[in-house]
Design goal:
By secondary structure, this protein is mostly helical. It contains ten helices and four strands; from the N terminus they run ααββααααβαβααα. It has helices spanning about 15-35, 40-50, 80-90, 90-100, 115-120, 130-135, 155-160, 170-175, 185-195, 195-215, and strands at about 55-65, 70-75, 140, 165-170. The chain has a two-stranded antiparallel sheet. Strands 3-4 form a two-stranded parallel ribbon. Helix 7 (about 155-160) links the parallel strand 3 (about 140) and strand 4. Helix 1 packs across helix 6. It is globular. Residues about 1-10 have low confidence and may be disordered.
């Protein structure tokens, strides 16, 4: 199945002008980013490849708009068998879940030395501009989550899935990993309730500032 079950009332997104302009913005900004940052992409890919010979990229299944599943792309910041290592350690996996499906970099044995730098600077997220260009994500929206995280939203999950997930978002602009569940749910849904062209631009630039300041990055 390529869709996940959703709960709650359907959220109306019938704003064609807003959605058209948002898609145009997504195409232009993601295209410029992919072309303009291509030298950085190449350098990072070479460094990761030289590190252990594995693929420079990491793909993980995330939940998109209307529950459609897609592969999100990142620069690999972990060892090649990271998912297997995590699930083989029950204590580590429980801490991962309890900590909002994240582990502090300094406590995570899966993260490489280069990976810590990529995460701290958010450079590992850059391949997501490709997801934006494909239309699976938007430049601004709630961060894409894994299926296990859907339970955190309870009967509000349908509202979350009524919009495309974003490369940039209110959760990132609000401190990222410093904001954990259940507060994160309120932050992400605040965006859904207030989404507009001006609000998107505000969050876009606030997220850039947050990335530069490295707020909540690990």
């Amino acid at each position: 199945m390529d869709r996940v079950k959703k709960e709650g009332d359907k959220v109306s997104t019938n704003r064609p002008i807003y959605h058209f302009s948002k898609r145009v913005f997504d195409i232009i900004t993601s295209s410029l980013a992919l072309v303009g940052l291509s030298p950085v992409f190449l350098v990072i890919a070479i460094l990761i490849k030289r590190q252990d010979g594995g693929s420079p990229f990491y793909a993980q299944t995330r939940v998109g708009k209307n529950g459609k599943l897609f592969k999100i792309y990142k620069f690999r910041s972990m060892i090649s068998n990271a998912d297997k290592v995590l699930k083989q350690n029950p204590d580590l996996y429980r801490k991962y879940v309890d900590n909002g499906f994240k582990l502090p970099a300094e406590e995570d044995p899966r993260i490489t030395k280069l990976g810590r730098f990529l995460r701290k600077t958010s450079l590992d997220e850059m391949p997501q501009f490709y997801n934006v260009l494909k239309g699976e994500m938007s430049m601004v929206g709630p961060r894409p989550i894994i299926q296990d995280e859907l339970a955190e939203y309870g009967n509000r999950v349908d509202k979350l899935l009524s919009v495309k997930p974003g490369a940039f978002g209110l959760w990132q602009a609000s401190g990222r990993s410093n904001v954990t569940y259940p507060e994160r749910c309120d932050v992400e849904l605040e965006y859904v309730d207030n989404a507009s062209a001006m609000y998107d631009l505000k969050i876009f630039f606030k997220t850039i500032i947050s990335i530069i300041k490295k707020d909540g990055a690990f």
